[in-house]
Amino acid sequence: MPSYDIHQHLWPPSLIEALQTRDRRPRLRGRRLELPSGDWEIDLAVHELAARLAALARDEIDIAVISCAPTLELDPDLIESYHEGMLEVVAEADGRLRAFACNVARDGFAGACVSALQLGDLAALAPLLANLEERGELLFVHPGPSLTPPDAPDWWPSVVGYTAQMQSAYAAWLAHGAAAWPDLRIVFAILAGGAPVQLERLGSRGVETRGLLHENVYLDTASYGERALTLAFATYGVGQIVYGSDWPVVDPEPTLRSVRGFGQAVAEAVCGANPERLLA
Q1: What is the DSSP letter of 252?
Q2: Which residues, in sequence order, are CB contacts of 166 under 8 Å at separation 6+?
Q3: Is the pLDDT of residue 200 over 90?
């Protein structure tokens, strides 16, 4: 059985070129990515196909699933550049890459990636959710742009803003989405912002939490290690957790080491059987 990383990002050449030629944000100026929410130094080399295949070999992962992070704040023209370019990259990768489309169900993609902020309005998402459910494709929920308080440290958006978004999105799905689209497979990035902890808090408010554990709801492991994963496995069981790294944003080695540290059976489920079932 192949092994998977469900959470990676790669910019196809067409998207990079489109970002480089823009006169307004989001845009690329040399190595600097200029977004409406701030500026970031980027290593474009990690987005080359050869480099990505080498990284998969390094991590002993067979297949990466690519998403275009909603944090990039792309407009429709840039999203189309991503879609067209990503199909070409996937075709060149000889089965080593799959990809999610942005905010749409589209042929050639494994499903759709949406911002966690969008789950705050499930009615607006309903056409996409119904379409994905009908097509048998999955929904990947990823953090979106995050406002940062003045003078906040650099880590604030990823540690505070993103996790808060994911907790809210997960709660919205538990409250309304799971019942409305019971056959839709959904993956929440970064353990849904710490969902196992929040389930205990729900229990303290009289909610029967066992009824909130749905067979089509999965969490990815990106950025987390042994302590968080121990709680996740105890809460959801091994079958609802899938390996995701968030490469090249996050170094995959600590999380992958932790997953494999639980033993061969757990690693094969989290990296292999679970994502294989999701993507079937």
Answers
A1: S
A2: 116, 141, 143, 188, 189, 190, 191, 192, 193, 194, 195
A3: no
